[in-house]
Amino acid sequence: MTVETKTGVRELTFAQALREALHEEMQRDDRIFVIGEDVGAWGGVFRVTEGIYDKFGPERAVDTPISEEGFTGLAVGAAMTGLHPVVEIMFGDFITLAMEQIVNQAAKMRYMSGGQAEVPITVRATIGAGRSSGGQHSQSLHAWFAHIPGLKVVVPATPYDAKGLLKTALRDQNPVMFFEDKLMYAKVKGEVPEQEYTIPFGKADIKRPGKDVTIVALSRMVHAALAAAEKLAEEGIQAEVIDPRTLTPLDRDTLIQSVIKTQRAVIVDMGYHDFGATAELAATIMNGAFDYIDAPIERLGATQVPIPFSPPLEMSTIPDEEKIIAAVKRTLAGRGA
Questions:
Q1: What is the pLDDT of residue 335?
Q2: Residues 6+ apart with CB under 8 A from 175
Q3: For labeling, which of 25, 79, 115, 226 is most exposed (least CB within 10 Å)?
Q4: Domain limits at 314?
Q5: Are 64 and 35 in contact (CB under 8 A)?
Q6: Alpha carbon 103 to chain centroid distance?
Q7: 1 within domain boundaries
Q8: Model-level pTM greater than 0.90?
Q9: What is the mean pLDDT of residues 164-185?
């Protein structure tokens, strides 16, 4: 249910904001269609594509067999002929089956054709642990795709950002990887304007200003960082929380300028710690703000183990607000983990 707040603004869930973006862009551009497992009459396993089949018909809400490589490859071909497919990967872990089509075809075709072939495709995939879904349904693999030239990587944290960034993706002539934390679909709510808007890629958002430490967080970890910042404020510690929103392109300047001001940084991501997004973000800060940093940069990511099915074991592998608070206090003490 949509909740009315003030004139021109509604409170939507994360899933509702994504669904609204899809409906609006499909109405605007008849080249856009969605494709994937159960995206049609069922409305998607997380209900994001609900209503699209009824409104736009089976030609623009295409249910597929369980073959990620097959329907992603079909979508790449459709994009090259002038359409704009929106591929839904039901669980982001299954994207491993479509790596050939995404990494070796979609990402490279424009370069290898000298700009003659464009591949305007948006691949939506889930990330995030915490549902007791096991090691093959709980991974956050977004950092993989930030490593590949030719792909844009989007990781929204709020309904407002989700809608604006998805609309931007659906107007981009390049392949965009759009990652959505599955725990946010129903639980995260926020104000979304009724009027038309988009959000540019490569523009970070300062979710909370502060002067004592910079916390850089991605996707669902933004909410953990904001909760940690609230508790830290009770102790007189003012944390600045920055959401990059996109990994590629990355707004390096906003990160660097914040750490020049605060002189300390904690970076939080749901992806695996080793060789993950936090490492590149830390390197960016070190290169740009080295002379100003007063303590080792803290990096928090998922523990380097397959994600357990057992809820207590699973939750112990995920960064949370208490771990963020502890990391902030280590930086303020001028020491690392």
A1: 57
A2: 79, 102, 106, 107, 119, 120, 121, 122, 123, 150, 151, 152
A3: 115
A4: 205-332
A5: yes
A6: 18
A7: no
A8: yes
A9: 97
Q: Is the domain of 186 the same as that of 211?
A: no
Q: Rounded distance, CA 140 to CA 155, Å?
A: 11
Domain stop point among 133, 161, 193: 193
Which tens digit of pLDDT belongs to each residue from 130-161?
888 888 888 999 999 999 999 999 999 999 99
Instruction: Name the token pair of 5.
Output: 């707040």
Yes or no: say if 167 and 21 are a contact pair by the CB < 8 Å rule: yes
Phi, psi (degrees; rounded to nearest 5) at 3: -105, 125
| Lookup: tokens for 41 | 């009459």
Q: 244: domain CATH number?
A: 3.40.50.920
Residue 199 lies in a domain: no
Q: Tally the domains of the chain.
A: 2
Cβ atoms of 280 and 146 within 8 Å: the answer is yes
Relative orientation angle of helices 221-233 and 321-332, to the nearest 10 degrees: 60
Q: What is the pLDDT of residues 216-247, one digit of tens each?
A: 999 999 999 999 999 999 999 999 999 999 99
Is there a single domain that holds both residue 35 and residue 122? yes
Please count the CA atoms within 13 angstroms of the CA of 133 that sit on its side-chain side: 17
Closest among 76, 216, 92 to 142, alpha carbons compared: 92
Residue found under tokens 């490492």: 279
pLDDT at residue 4 in the model: 46
Q: Which residues are catalytic?
A: 68, 137
Domain boundary among 168, 193, 218: 193
List, as one string, the DSSP characters of 277-336.
Answer: HHHHHHHHHHHHHGGG--SPPEEEEE-SSPPPSSHHHHHHTS--HHHHHHHHHHHHTT--
Q: Comparing 23-37, 63-77, 274-288, 300-314, which segment has the lowest mean pLDDT?
A: 300-314
